[in-house]
Design goal:
- The complex is a heterodimer of chains A (110) and B (114).
- Chain A has 110 residues and is an all-beta fold.
- Helix content of chain A is 0%, strand content 54%.
- In chain A, the strands form two sheets. In chain A, strands 2, 4, 5, 9, 10 and 11 form a six-stranded mixed beta sheet that branches. A five-stranded antiparallel beta sheet of chain A has the order 1-3-8-7-6, with no helix packed on it.
- By secondary structure, chain B is mainly beta.
- In chain B, the strands form two sheets. In chain B, strands 2, 4, 5, 6, 9, 10 and 11 form a seven-stranded mixed beta sheet that branches. A four-stranded antiparallel beta sheet of chain B has the order 1-3-8-7, with no helix packed on it.
- Classes of the chains: A mainly beta (110), B mainly beta (114).
- At the A-B interface, β4, β5 and β9 of A face β5, β9 and β10 of B.
């Protein structure tokens, strides 16, 4: 089946720093989604991308749909303690099924 | 408030017992999904349903069963045939087929089988 390689697996940063994480695949996706999950909760949708090359922002978050349609990145600027959590990328090809990356665990030190 | 409800939040069962996890949505979404999450891992698709009275197996359907008798409800049964049922189970819904593939998740049910 399709696989998404998400990196890094974990990040430890200081408050105020910028963060970048990405997902790559050997498969082409029609849609890229980025989610954040806090401990014991369900993932919350942050950003959805539908066109190759699309760059979308949501507050301090910016995500891009790679031009080859095989990758996407998420940037978080000026991190704050509440940014802590696990960030997942997800790609959709057809039939409404999503393939998820394994997540990036973000820790922000005050 | 519109959203997805999963109950209970925590569930404990003895090995060999079947258990049913509830998922209800009032978002008027056509499609619903069940995922399993193990510690430190991503989400794996168990079953999904794009319309009432129809559902398809996901990547790890063995040992699970579902029904979709109502648009709002998509219960998941973890049977005794599931070899390693202890996990965090997540339900999601979406409105596919309209160029929008965003899945929205419930709060999850943590199942512990001993």
């Amino acid at each position: 089946g399709q696989q998404l390689n998400q990196s890094p697996q974990s990040m430890f940063i200081q408050e105020g720093e910028d963060v970048s994480m990405n997902c790559t695949s050997s498969s082409i996706f029609n849609t890229w989604l980025w989610y954040k999950q806090e401990p014991g909760e369900g993932p919350v949708l942050l950003i959805a991308l539908y066109k190759a090359g699309e760059l979308t922002s949501n507050g301090r978050l910016t995500a891009q749909f790679g031009i080859t349609r095989k990758d996407s990145f998420l940037n978080i600027s000026a991190s704050i303690p509440s940014d802590v959590g696990i960030y997942f990328c997800a790609g959709e090809t057809s039939g409404s099924r999503l393939t998820f990356g394994e997540g990036t665990q973000l820790t922000v030190n005050p | 408030d519109g959203g997805i409800t999963q109950s209970p939040k925590y569930l404990f069962r003895k090995e060999g017992q079947n258990v049913t996890l509830s998922c209800e949505q009032n978002l008027n979404h056509d499609a619903m999904y069940w995922y399993r999450q193990d510690p430190g891992q991503g989400l794996r698709l168990i079953y999904y349903s794009q319309i009432v009275n129809d559902f398809q197996k996901g990547d790890i359907a063995e040992g699970y069963s579902v029904s979709r008798e109502k648009k709002e409800s998509f219960p998941l049964t973890v049977t005794s045939a599931q070899k390693n049922p202890t996990a965090f189970y997540l339900c999601a819904s979406s409105t596919p087929g309209q160029g929008i593939d965003e899945q929205y998740f419930g709060p999850g049910t943590r199942l512990t089988v001993t």
